[in-house]
Amino acid sequence: MFTEFTDNIHYIIILDQDGGTEYCLWPEGKATPRGWQSVGYAGSKQACINHLQQIWPDMRPLPVHREMAKLAQRS
Asked: Mind listing the domains of the chain with CATH numbers?
C-alpha cells in the first residue's frame, strides 16, 4: 500500500523556457537548471501541486496540443 511521503522541503515551481509548456517542482534554494525559470510561486510540495493543477490543467506535451489544434481546424 502506498503511503503519501511528506517532507519539510519548500519548493518553487519552474517553467521551461523552450516553449514554456512544462512545469516542474524544484527545491527552493537550489540553483534553477539552465533553460528553466521560476514562475514566482513557492510553498510546500502539496501547495505547489495544488497550484500546478490550477495553472496547468492539460499536461499533454506541446506536439499533442499542436496536433489537436490542427484536427480542430479541419472540423
From this structure: 11-74 (3.90.820.10)
The pTM of the full predicted model, rounded to 2 decimals, is 0.72
Model confidence pLDDT, tens digit, residues 18-56: 877 789 999 999 999 999 999 999 999 999 999 999 988
SS3 letters for 4-61?
CCCCCCCEEEEEECCCCCCEEEEECCCCCCCCEEEEEEEECHHHHHHHHHHHCCCCCC
| Alpha-carbon gap, residue 52 to 55, rounded angstroms | 5
